[in-house]
Amino acid sequence: MFKTLSPDLIRRRLTSLFPTELIEDIARERDVVQRDRKIDITMLVWTLIMGFAVDGEARTIAGFQRAYSAATNQTVARSSFYDRFTPALAALLSDLLEHALEEVAVPHTIAPQFELFRDVLIADATVFRLHRLLDAFPATHPGQSGAKLHVVQNASKQTIEQFQLTDECTHESSQLRTGSWLRGRLLLFDLGFYSFRRFALIDENGGFFLSRLKSNANPLIVGERRKWRGRAISLPERRLRDVLGDLSREIIDVTVEIEFKRRAYVGKQSTDSMEFRVVGVRNEDTDDYHLYVTNLPDEFTPRQVGALYGLRWEVELLFRELKSLYGLEKFQTSDPAIVELLVVAALLTLTVSRALLGVFQELFPEIVFPRERWAKTFRSLAQLILEDLAQSFGHPPPNLSELMFRDARQPEKSRLLLSERVAEAFMRRSSA
User: Fold this and answer.
1) Residue 410 has what pLDDT?
2) Where are the alpha helices (DSSP H) in 234-380?
3) Any alpha helices (H) in 281-370, and if so which ranges?
4) How many CA atoms are closer than 13 Å to the CA of 428, on its beta-carbon side?
5) Segments making up each domain of the chain, as ranges
6) Does residue 428 have a pLDDT over 90?
């Protein structure tokens, strides 16, 4: 089986995703390339992508500089390297990420019913702490800084559809815009995005939604979507919460009427109502119902609706991969612009990892590649991949002895080692 794997397979996929010409063209458009060409812009981009995956390395510019020097066998002044971390470089990375998100997809069919949707999207947000106090990223607790990454993940293609970076205090619901772009798409979200007006707008734009029903919601039941044999309790014209305790059935599938307020217009806010579907699936452990509100058609059974909502865990796995494997919470910078740059770099790392995963899934469709196991393997090989790319671009293999000498030596002669400080103190005492 492994004879079919070419040694340059990974390099070919990565350079086809981001050809050197593409990186250089965008760099010129964004005015990243300057007269001083000591730093190879293509290798700088790949260092930020692959360097983010290097195991155990704090996300510092010094760490990226070490990864760059190790891959290119090139000595770069620290000030020259630091000067490259500009808004122009951030714009270059953003353009590359936008390009990659259009190119990378790992499509999979969960079930035939999913052909009803153009895409299945999951909206969520995650907070990560910053190790420096930054005014641009206030946290919910005083004396801290926190950033919030808002994501819409495409579960159908295993890519990121949208992302936005804000401070921790910004509510995730404010970053999700409804509109015609949702037509034919299914959107899954948690209670942070819960809004009857949002549900109505998604439905009016031809989209589909699925959310947990809030515990304090008590809508009016206007119809049952399934007939029950025998002397079943009649539900229409009753409030949902008022009848839950009387039910022993395994599932609930009803139509409810929900009232909500429209957006204010010319200082006036009107009240409207719509009918949606509420599904309940009894939880055997707690002996109560997991309730969901949706506009999915009846071809999705209540148990399928409950299972479908479990797909929302995909975005939690994405956040865990970004944080635990790619160090999203290890930023060591006091510059808000660099925080934003590094977030884009982390998303590029994730996207490149998924692009390579797509290659292997296509080559070996019968083999299972668990995503977290894949990510750990990718991270462990990141520096080797970076060095392989550098050599393909004409950089010589690393001079390991030179790297050891350059990085391990005392940077300033004025700095004394502990033993030297002790010896100096005794010498002064003796002189006195």
Assistant:
1) 65
2) 240-243, 302-309, 313-320, 336-363, 371-380
3) 302-309, 313-320, 336-363
4) 6
5) 8-103+333-408, 213-288
6) no
